[in-house]
Amino acid sequence: MSEASLPLDVDCGMVETDASRLLQAELERYCERELNGRSFLIAGHRGAGKTTLVANAFLEAFKRAERGPLPVRPLLIQLHGPDLLPWPERKPPPVPKPKEGETPKPEVPPEEMATRVVLEEITLGLHRAVAREFARSFREATRRKTTLNRVRRLEVFEMAAELEVELYDFPSAARLRDLWQRAGFLRDGVLFRPSYDERARRAMAPRPDQGLRELVALHTVTEAYRRISGEYSQTEDDKQVDNKKDEATQAVDTTGKNLLQPIVSLLTGGIVGSSLVQADISPYIATISGLVTALGTVVILKYSTTRGQDRTITRSQKFMRDLSVATLDRVLPIVIERLLQAGLAPMFVVDELDKVHDFENRAVKMVAHLKKLVAESAFFCFLTDRSYFEDVQNQISSRPFPTVHTYYSHRIFVMQSPDDLHKHLRKVLNLDGRAGPPQHPNARPIAPGSDEEQDANLIPYFLLYRSQMHPVDLQREISRRRTEKGEVDLKVGDIRSSWGLRLDPVIQAAIELVLDREVFRIRLENKLGLRRFAHDAMYYLTRTRKSDRRIDLGPAGLDSFGAYLVERAGGDPAAVNVTKLMNEEERDFLWARVRDLVGLLADRAQLKSQITTRNTERQARGLPVIPWAIGSSLDTLQSEILHQLPGEPDIYYWTYGIDGTNYAPAPPAVMAVRQSAWPDDVTFIRAVSQTIEEVTG
Amino acid sequence: MTAPVIDFTALSARHHILPTTPAWPSVQEAMQRLESHGDHEYKGQKADAGLVDEFAELLRHDSRLIGVALTCAAALGRALESGSRTERIERGLAALNAVYRLEALNQKEKTTTLNRLLAELNAIDAWKELKAPARLPRRAIADNWKSTLHENLELASTAGWPNHQEWQSLSAAAWQSAAERLSNFVTGRTDTGKPTLADLVTHATNALPASLLKLDLGSMTIVDWSKVFLSGLVRAYSGPGTRNRISKRLAHRALAILGFNVSETAEWLQVGSADPSPFDGVGVPAPTHAPICALVIRTGPLLTQWLPDRERPILALTAAEFASANEQLPKGQSLFHALPVQLIAFELPAEPHLLTTTKVVVRKSPSLQLGYIGETDAGMDPTSIHIIAPKKPEDIFLPLRRMTVV
């Protein structure tokens, strides 16, 4: 008999939910260039798996892009919320003293300053991610080049190292081109594998200029990075003497001078001479006078031309390019567009927003300023807690189309329903016998109709009960229960036999029955954020099972229950204002559901009947059912799981302790006598077993 | 394959005659520990003794049920044409579990159900001597329990039951019972009807209709209903009680349950036979107006859990089944056109020759769309058929090939 038998997948992965499927679908549409941008508000309690959700969506899209179906691959850019919105807010830089004659520059208003900080952080994160991606891809592309000899390969690797260093020193476009050209990447680039390109060329738009696209994108990103890395200004002096016009004038003058001057001189001289002849002056004198006049005219004309050449026009332009941080909001969409053209789809993930001081108010300003960029030009995920999510939901439900309505294209709350968790566990335990995620080498199919199969159906319920349906605790429980061989560390049959284990799946089934009741389902659908409280509420009774086994359903119990819920939210900033997340009416509602659970645990027949009814309904809908083995466990119980004592109307007691000790109000002497007769029992069991083998063999 | 053994695991985990709690392997371990330690106390001894006591008590309590179940199983197994006694009892127990869904019943309900069956068997001449063994006293293996059990199983092994006439009668009753269940299913009634002896016998012998139709028709998947359709069309299924003229009608209903509009398929399926059939009275579900009817070429187990959805008609066949179905149609006609189908989808990885063949078909019928179902894009839901938009004929297969390579 094996010590541990059930295969437990090494890669536990993420619990898939509707939210995760939506995020993944939208990210893939973004990578397919069907969307320009999306902004997701992803909320959940601490440890709900927000970061895992985003990371998983990214990885899935990345893998799909690597295989080929997506034309661009996502580029994860992680931003730290408290860096984006620091507290205290960063002060505007001091305004430099104006030089003489200059008008003083105005001080940057605080709101604009806050936006600048956000833009700086986005640019910084973008540059870091792009630099890392290109450096890695350059090395990978070198490694893939099988045609290089050893010396040449070393040379290209050296170039990769140079690139990695220089990317933080603002390399010029010429320098980048030089590296790409020398390494032989100018045509195909470095980002994509040749095999990808071969298929992409046939299936999608060809990219013969991939290398050039990469250079454009990389240069644009480094230029944006330069803007935030120091005082960066560029001036272009453009002095231009308007020579062309002068030359043209001179040309006309020259032509005029050559033709007009002799003509005018001669005409003037002629006129003067003629006048003198007509005035009966000697022709010689007239001729001389004419020549003198002509000469004088030439002199006068010569004088006039000289004056015209001195009249020059000079124009001077001084262009100071605005490379300040303030212009980043215009630059970033261009950066993103160029990255997309190169085959990288930036996916910004802003984490830890619940740690940002006064995020509710500051987020409004930030997103309002950057709405165009955030919602329409790129893919943004804002990760926050329940509190902000509830705030946004309240705004949307209380006012028609509030401004926050358009900030986030999708608002999702990360919370796993019991069905999500079961689906995940069935996958992890490979209960459906499907080929799928990587299995441990020792994993083997579970034989139908075997004891292992019975155990396997119960183990998800056991794990969920132990982890209290909390994803992080579930992963811990799985890790804790997994042996080196990749199996569950429970012996075959233990979960159905050991009193320390066998009640756990039963209680979990009762919890799921209560959660699945219509009144509960509707409430949770209407207020997603309440689900964690609901789950916590369902495990309130378990806490008492670990201590004095006493459950008080009276007024004192209600107070204790309220305190327990606050404690469960402890450590979470949302706990500061629990009443905002859950009002008194909701607390009372949850308390009523706890009473429902008590009702089920104190009445085996009712619990069994409800399991049967629910299973019948779910079977008709093709949904997984509560294992019948749970009903079988119930049948073998000698007492109710919870019992009451006379004279204590609102008080219940756990019959079985956490270690399986039976505290039923039965005479212990009877039990002791029966247990002492184990040799007779063993003989009896063996005899029955032998008889059955004889008559059937 | 190892021969089955009837032990406590078989009676609990496999056939649900005994409760699955406590587990027999744990009890065995506890017994070994107790015996190996003898009089020496050890940690956990109390728990082990408690477990052994619980199991012994359980055996005593259910000893009569064990006897009745083994007796009934042996009688049902007698209908098998061949097999050892153990195999016959094993098949009988499996039939009891499947037909009565014993796992969902408590011990009292199981006892009542099997006692009723024993009474029904007693009504048959060959079985009138079968007796229910008495409950065992505590911690004593009574001789009369053992001897009754022995006699019952000997009788079951030697009886000449059922003869040809009895078999015909059982078969007809099983078909009638199946038709009633189908009628309830089609009209949305959840009542699956009371299982009959005929249902049990056909289950034990894996004969029609039990080999095709589950008792709980709601749990039948697309693959199950596709097989029902194929059985009517191809007539490849044979065995005791096969009645092909019924299968045609059944095939017609199966197609309707899968979501296809069957108003035009009745003619080529030749449903209008003059032979009376239990399925004559079974209504046909109202035709759907689903935009796409799909034919999925199966290569693996991905579809085995998909339930029919009348909004998304899907017929799932293997390549061989598809070929044999086409052979039944007039020359030159294909299921694509007969159904008709607008989408052909492959379960990945698909075999290369299938892709080539389908490429030719799709080129001849440009209105056909192509899709795939891949494990990487998992989801046990019919919505996850990925339809490949054929922009250009030469592009149709590219994504599919790529996925196949991966």
Question: Which two chains touch over the largest interface?
Answer: A-B, 67 and 78 residues
Order of helices and strands of chain B: HHHHHHHHHHHHEEHHEHEEH
Strand order of the largest sheet of chain A: 2-5-6-1-7
The Cα radius of gyration of chain A reads 42 Å
The end-to-end distance of chain A, rounded to whole angstroms, is 23 Å
Strand content of chain B: 5-15%
Question: What does this 3D model show about the protein?
Answer:
The complex is a heterodimer of chains A (697) and B (406). By secondary structure, chain A is an alpha/beta fold. Chain A has helices at residues 18-31, 50-67, 81-84, 110-144, 150-166, 173-183, 194-203, 210-228, 243-278, 283-309, 328-342, 359-377, 386-398, 404-407, 418-428, 451-467, 471-481, 494-497, 503-515, 518-526, 530-538, 540-546, 555-568, 578-581, 584-601, 604-620, 628-636, 668-676, 678-696, and strands at residues 38-43, 73-80, 234-241, 314-321, 344-351, 379-384, 410-413, 550-552, 642-643, 651-654. In chain A, β9 (642-643) and β10 (651-654) form a beta hairpin. In chain A, α1 crosses α2 and α4 crosses α12 (359-377). Chain B is built from 16 helices and 5 strands. Chain B has 406 residues and is mostly helical. The two termini of chain B are 34 Å apart. In chain B, β3 (343-347), α15 and β4 (369-373) form a beta-alpha-beta unit. The interface between A and B is large, with 67 and 78 residues.
